[in-house]
Write a structure and sequence with these properties.
Layout: H1 14-35, H2 42-55, E1 59-63, H3 66-76, E2 84-88, H4 94-101, E3 105-109, H5 120-126, E4 131-135, H6 146-156, E5 159-163, E6 171-173, E7 179-181, E8 188-192, E9 206-210, H7 213-223, E10 227-229, E11 232-233, H8 244-254, H9 257-275, E12 281-282, E13 297-301, H10 306-315, H11 345-353, E14 354-357, H12 365-378
Parallel strand pairs: 2-3, 2-4, 4-5, 5-8
Antiparallel strand pairs: 1-9, 6-7, 8-9, 10-11, 12-13, 13-14
């Protein structure tokens, strides 16, 4: 059966999004080309300042990608080989990858069955004298429960490195009413500007956030070959920078970020209504203290053959994705006695039942109706 919608359904419609801002983006890119300031040009500094203002954070340090952002943060915090860093197993491997790359020990823990974000109780159980940091992943578009995580970190003198690659623009509200942007609450926040992200560039890019001025200077130094003055290298660093063309694109798209989040929430609300109370569908839960920017619309299938459903959706020209089919604790590179599947019942279950439907800023009612009605028909 072929699709009955006018345009091809995409998991992420970057072309449709580009068409709406084409004039602005093309002009911004041309300005960079005309200036020939391709590295650390004015566009990078302008985007940095705009993002600091948007996030209400003192310092943004642009870098080459989200994985670099995590690596630079951990290098800057002075973590040493053998130090333990706690993070979730239900996430993309990059979070644990950087921990292992630096000779640190990734300690994988469970997530909440409903919100998919790291479980605070699991964090607390995993803390040992070797623990030096917690990396909460703000998964699928909403924040992990930061207030108790920050309390735990303070109690045990731990760093908190927020992985905000999927939740830029999200808000977390504390019990006292204070509201903070995702990535600005811990010691440092790390994000990705991969094209499919809510704020994505047209290549690769990332950034690090902090309110600590001394830490910001160290982050900049590590990201720039370990130098604060040209040709003077006080520490071992890396070469990680956001190029000017990508910054120019991001500067334009940042102005639309809240509009993009609203469009994603509108699409999510349509899905929610269509799937409400269906016995074989569990719609995404909303964290009580966090807004949701719906990087992904990830539901759980109950008592259904997920692979068969995906094949049937694909036959109707409806794409879908599984984030993530193989948890980090099952990956060969991270297997250990502590990482036995039996220790991760929730993550194990999620890996068998989660399914992400198309979600982006250009979703129209015709497309949403076709996707939701098709899934409902297949689950009869």
């Amino acid at each position: 059966m072929s699709t009955t919608v006018a345009k091809k359904i995409q998991m992420v419609d970057l072309k449709g999004q580009y068409q709406k801002i084409k004039t602005e983006v093309d002009s911004a890119i041309q300005d960079v080309i005309n200036s020939t300031a391709f590295i650390n040009g004015p566009a990078v500094k302008e985007f940095q300042a705009d993002l600091e203002k948007y996030l209400h954070v003192k310092h943004v340090i642009p870098c080459a990608n989200g994985t670099d952002a995590l690596q630079i943060a951990m290098m800057t915090l002075g973590l040493k080989a053998g130090d333990e860093v706690i993070t979730a197993s239900h996430t993309y491997v990059a979070t644990a990858e950087v921990i292992g790359l630096l000779g640190l020990t990734p300690v994988l823990v469970e997530v909440h069955a409903d919100t998919f974000c790291i479980d605070v109780k699991a964090i607390e159980k995993a803390i040992t004298p070797k623990t030096k940091a917690i990396v909460p992943v703000h998964l699928y578009g909403q924040c992990a429960d930061m207030e108790p995580i920050l309390a735990l970190a303070k109690k045990h003198n731990l760093f908190v490195i927020e992985d905000v690659a999927q939740a830029i623009g999200g808000d977390y509200t504390f019990s006292n009413g204070a509201k903070h942007k995702a990535g600005t609450m811990g010691t440092v926040g790390c994000t990705s500007f991969f094209p499919s992200k809510n704020l994505g560039c047209y290549g690769d890019g990332g950034a690090i956030y902090t309110n600590d001025t001394a830490l910001a200077e160290k982050l900049k130094m590590i990201a720039h070959h370990g130098q604060s003055v040209q040709y003077v290298h006080d520490v071992v660093g890396v070469n990680s920078r956001l190029d000017s063309i990508q910054a120019a694109v991001l500067k334009i798209k940042l102005k639309h970020l809240d509009e993009y989040a609203a469009a994603r929430n509108k699409a999510a609300a349509y899905y929610d209504k269509a799937f409400a109370n269906h016995p074989k569908i569990k719609i995404p839960a909303r964290a009580k203290n966090s807004t949701h920017v719906f990087h992904q619309y990830t539901l759980q299938l109950v008592g259904a053959d997920r692979n068969k459903i995906r094949e049937q959706l694909a036959a109707r020209d409806i794409p879908s994705m599984i984030y993530y089919p193989i948890p980090v604790h099952r990956q060969k590179a991270y297997q250990s006695d502590k990482n036995k599947p039996a220790n991760f019942p929730i993550t194990e279950h999620l890996s068998t039942c989660v399914l992400s439907l198309p979600m982006h800023t250009e979703m129209d009612e015709e497309t949403l109706n076709y996707i939701s009605s098709s899934l409902l028909e297949l689950l009869k």
